[in-house]
Design goal:
The structure is a single chain. The chain is an alpha+beta fold. It has a domain of 68 residues. Helix content is 32%, strand content 23%. The protein has a six-stranded antiparallel beta sheet with strand order 4-1-2-3-6-5. Helix 1 runs antiparallel to helix 2. Bound molecules: zinc ion (ZN). Zinc ion binds next to loops.
Length: 145
């Protein structure tokens, strides 16, 4: 339990860094993968899913460097791009970045709140305690205090 909480904040921090890079990168590029009737990519500051009515002749990874217009809000566009009747779903990357960022900040704050001599669930001071469970909330701790 303690280990999981500790690692969560670092995973969160790494995810924030990745999302930030992806978001900034997606302002100036389109990077993604084209399969038969579906393409997933990062562009216009969004994670984009494109659905095509017919199987595309182009398959595989693609990357284009050029400044695009940026979408700040989730958006659905029908048939406005290169091919007719395509559907494009846009999820701006600042939304997952904000969610993961807030969760990571909370994880860091929580970690500071409860020191090594405290129950990591409720913060109860376990200094000198000889129980295997927290007397306050019943959380079992695995590392000796
Ligand atoms: Zn507790």
């Amino acid at each position: 339990m303690k280990f999981r909480r500790r690692s969560v904040k670092w995973v969160g921090l790494a995810a924030c860094a990745l999302l930030l890079c992806a978001w900034i990168g997606a302002f100036w590029s389109a990077l993604g993968y084209q399969a038969n009737t579906v393409a997933v990519n990062l562009s216009v500051g969004c994670f984009e899913i494109s659905l095509f009515p017919k199987s595309s002749p182009k398959h595989g990874w693609f990357a284009v460097w050029q400044p695009y217009e940026t979408y700040w809000l989730p958006k659905i566009i029908h048939g406005r791009f290169n091919a007719a009747r395509t559907t494009h779903l846009f999820m701006p990357l600042w939304i997952p970045l904000l969610i993961v960022g807030v969760a990571t900040i909370l994880a860091f704050k929580h970690d500071r709140q409860f020191g090594p001599d405290h129950c990591q669930t409720c913060g109860y001071d376990l200094h000198g305690a000889e129980h295997e469970k927290c007397p306050e909330c019943g959380n079992e701790y695995t590392t000796p205090i």
